[in-house]
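Lab notebook, bench 4. Still working through the backlog of constructs that have no structural model yet. Next entry is a single chain of 105 residues. Request: give me the structure tokens for it.
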Amino acid sequence: MHDALAALARAAGTATPTPTPSTVDPELVTPGAEGFVITAVVAVVTILLVWDMIRRIRRGRVRADINEELDAQFEAEEQAARAREATETDGQDIDPESPDAPTRG
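Model written out:
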């Protein structure tokens, strides 16, 4: 095993090859027209999706605001009805003009 490692080290220590520059065809390494079209389509689709999402979020917020207003109005009406019920008497007619009406002192 030791002999194999020594032989490998000697072989690696000899001449190291140097890379030779080669010419590369630009058509093979650039995306070209197809890449541009695909990128443009992805960008347009993304913009349309964001636009639709913003529209839906706004619509949801408006609906939530309307529901809150309706709930508040309903609550106020319920509270007014409870107040009316609380002020009603047990079947007695209170008329301040009647001669037998209780007087406050």
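Notes after review: Residues 32-86 form one domain. Residues 12 and 19 are 16 Å apart (CA to CA). Flag for follow-up if needed.
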